[in-house]
Design a protein that fits this description.
Elements (H helix, E strand, L loop, with lengths): L1 E3 L9 E3 L9 E10 L2 H8 L14 E9 L11 E4 L2 E2 L5 H4 L10 E3 L6 E3 L6 E5 L3 E3 L6 H5 L1 H14 L8 E4 L3 H13 L4 E5 L2 H9 L4 E4 L5 H8 L6 E4 L4 H9 L6 E4 L12 H7 L2 E4 L5 H12 L9 E6 L3 H8 L6 E5 L3
Parallel strand pairs: 7-8, 11-12, 11-14, 12-13, 14-15, 15-16, 17-18
Antiparallel strand pairs: 1-2, 3-4, 3-9, 3-18, 4-5, 5-10, 6-7
Amino acid sequence: MLAAVLEAVGKMPLREVPKPQAGPGEVIVRVKACGICQTDYLAYTGGRTNWTPGLIVGHEISGVIDEVGPGVTSCTEEDEVVVSPAGFCGLCRWCRTGLQHYCSDGFVIGGEGFERVLNGGFAEYVRAPASVIYPKPPNVSFPAAALTEPLAGSYKGLIEYTQMRVGEDLVIIGCGGMGLLVGSIAHATGAGTLICIDIEDFKLDYARKIGATHVINSTTTDAKQAAYDILPEGPDIVFEAAGTLPAAELQMDLCRRGTRVNMFGVIVPGTIPVSPARVHFQETRVDASFSVNPKVMTRSLDLQRKGLVDPSVIVTHEVPLSEMPRALEVMGSAERIKVVVRPGE
C-alpha cells in the first residue's frame, strides 16, 4: 500500500509498504479521509520529538472496513466507520473510573498521548482494534467524519469539563481547527455572546461562519479592551485554543470574578505569570482537557448525525495522499484551517 512515512524531521516521503493484516479482534480500514492535526505537523517540523522514525502518523481517520479479523462481530466488511485514535485496556483503575484517557496500558493510533503509538492514517489502509471503531452516520461525509476525534476533544473540554450552560458568554482565543470546533459546539449549545480572537483575519472570517457574534484581531486592537467593550461585566468562560503562551496570558487577563477558563491549546514548554491572590479572590475556575474517551466520541457523532455541528465547514483543503508534499506545504501557510488527506484519490 502507499503510505507517507515519517523518517526524520522534514522527511515524510511516500513509500510502498506492506498492507497490514487483521489479527484477532482487529480490523483493517480502507482510509477515505484523514485530517492533519497540528501535532502531526509538529512531528514533521521538529516541534514534537516523541516518535520513532518509520512511523506513519495521522490520527483523524474515517474509512470503510476492508477486512475483519477472527472474533470481530461488531462490524463487517464495507461498513463506513470512524476510527478513534485512543485505545484503552478497560481493566485499570483509570478505565474503571471513567478516565480512560489516563489508561495505564493505553495506545494511540498515529498520534500522541500514550507511549505506545501504532501506525496511523496517512496511508491507504490502517489496522485498528475493533474496540476503537464507531459507525459513521450515513448523512455525514468522510472528510467531516474524519474530524470526529477533534470535535470530541472540543466537546469534552467545553461541555464535560468547563460545563458550559445555555446563554453563557464565551471568549475563544485562537481560531484554528480546534478553536473553531469549540466555537461550533458553543453556538450549538446556545452561547449568549460568542467572541473569537485571533491574529489572522482569514481565520476570523471562518469564526463568523461557525456562529461567532463578534471577532477581534489582537494585532490591530487591544483584545481585552475590545472584549470588555462588548461584555462590560466580563465573560463567563474564556477558552484558550491558540497554543501559545501569550494567548494563555491573555486568557487569565480576561477573567473577572467567577470566570471559568480552560487551558486547552498550550502544549509547548514555558510558564506565564499568575497571581494566586487574584485567582483566589476572583474565584477563577481553571480547567484543562486533552484526548478523548468513548463517551465524547459518541457525543461527537451524535452532534454530526443530528446536524447540530458540521465539521466540514472548517475544511479548507482536501489533498490526495499521492500529493502529501503539497498537503504539508499547505500546513505551513497562513490561509488554511483544516487540511484533510484523501487516500485513493
